[in-house]
Structure formats: C-alpha cells, structure tokens
Amino acid sequence: MNDLPFGNWLKQASIQFENVLGTSISIESTPLFLPGFIMIVVSAIGFFLYKMSGKEYGLALSSSAKMIISAAPALLFSVPLVQVFINSDINALGYESMPLLLAESVSNLTGDNWPVIAPAIGALGAFVAGSNTISNMMFSLFQFGTAENVGGNPATVVALQAVGGAAGNMICVHNVVAASAAAGIVGKEGVLIRKVMIPLTYYLVFAGGLGYVAIHGVGFNIGTLLVVAVILVLVILVIKYGQSGQQYPYKKQNKKSSNM
Q1: CA 132 to CA 165: how far, in whole Å?
Q2: DSSP 190-248
Q3: What are the pLDDT digits (tens) for 217-258?
Q4: Which range has the worst mean pLDDT, 120-129, 136-145, 172-181, 191-200?
Q5: DSSP-based three-state secondary structure for 130
Q6: pLDDT attached to residue 157
Q7: What are the domain boundaries of the chain?
Q8: Where exactly are the transmembrane stretches of this chain (predicted)?
Q9: Which among 209, 194, 196 is positioned nearest to 163, based on CA atoms?
Q10: pTM
C-alpha cells in the first residue's frame, strides 16, 4: 500500500503515545492505514454492490461482531505481553532483551540443529497466543538472534518461524472451537486436536528438514534424513491406503445407514 497514491495520505491520521509508563518507548498507530479499515470500506461497498437490505447487513455485522468479541480478550492481553517481551531491554540494570537472552541460551544447547526446531517454536507460539501474527511478533527476534548465534541464515530461520506459526493454527484452541461449531461437533475439540497433531507433526518435521537443508545443504545430515524419512512415509501411506481404499471408510458406513 505504500506505493499507492493515497497510501501516504492515509498514514497522516495517526495516534501517538510518547514515553509510555515513563520509559523511552513510543507507540504510533495509523488507523486508516490498517487492514481492518480497508475491510470496513469493502464491507460498505458490498452493501451497495449486492443491494443488501438493512436487515441483511445488520445480520452480517452481528455475526462478524460475535467473532471479533470472542477473539478480542486474547488479543487485548497478548499484544501488550508481546510488547513487554520485545522491549524488555529497556530496564534500569541494562540487561539484554528476553528474546536475545533466550536466543543465546538456546543456541548453546542446539548448535547447528536449530533450523530443525525453529518451526516447532512458531507452532507453540500460535497455540499459546492463538495467532500466527502474535507468534511471529513474539518469537521473530528470538529466532533471528538464535540464527545469528549458530551461524545460520536469519532470514531462513525467521521464515521457518512463520511456517511453524501457520501450522500451529491447526491446534489453536479458538480455531478448533470455531471449526467444531461450524461442523456441528461441539464437545469433540480434544479428539480433533489429537487427530490434527498427525498432520501438524508432518508439517513441522518436513519444514524443519527443508530449513536445515536450505542452510547447510544436502548431505548426510539430520535435515536430509528428515526430508527423506517424511517422503518415504508418505509414499508408503499412499501405496498402502491408495490401493486398499481404506481411506474412505465413511462411504461404507453411509451406504449401510442408507440401506437401513
């Protein structure tokens, strides 16, 4: 949006907070430049474009408001927590920020193998915070610092963080609850999360292996072994279940129930 002719104009409306809580931290927000404002504009255009009635538009607003309200408490607490975490280097004792201190400790434990673990950290952040965005805000600096300490490519490791955060949305509690409600299986969230752990594990292991190979190259190393292992498992599953048709057990059940 910075390249658009009205981008700079939208950024002129800003809200600023200087010296938050007596520190050197400053906060600035440009509400007209946020994606949410664009969505509101598109919503208003849709009202006229689809010739909606006031009742229909009110129902759409009500449904959207319920979703926003359900997600708001997590965001209201997690975003300030992230800011405290990132700006923790502003302290009277002159300590490093928490992400960089964690990065130093973790890099000493994992060494060159960190790219394999990086996606799992992103997934953990998304699971706890309920958002890939919050996970990236919280752990990107940590991932960047760890990559520098172990001699890896920081851009690749931060990308693995984002990949893991996206995967972690599969087990994010409020996402699972919303999906369960939409599918009519409320109360089965625990079962759903356990089943989703299988594709999540594949996703994280494969991404970690690819990240290791991207940084250290192909060879007899843990990254190459993980990638080959995942591919072999997938090939075996495709051969086993693709020929036997065991992946469609529900068809037999539906046929049986229809005969009844």
Answers
A1: 5
A2: HHHHHHHHHHHHHHHHHHHHHHHHHHH-SSSSHHHHHHHHHHHHHHHHHHHHHHH-TT-
A3: 888 888 899 999 999 988 888 888 776 555 544 444 444 444
A4: 172-181
A5: coil
A6: 92
A7: 7-75, 98-259
A8: 32-50, 114-134, 196-215, 221-242
A9: 209
A10: 0.65
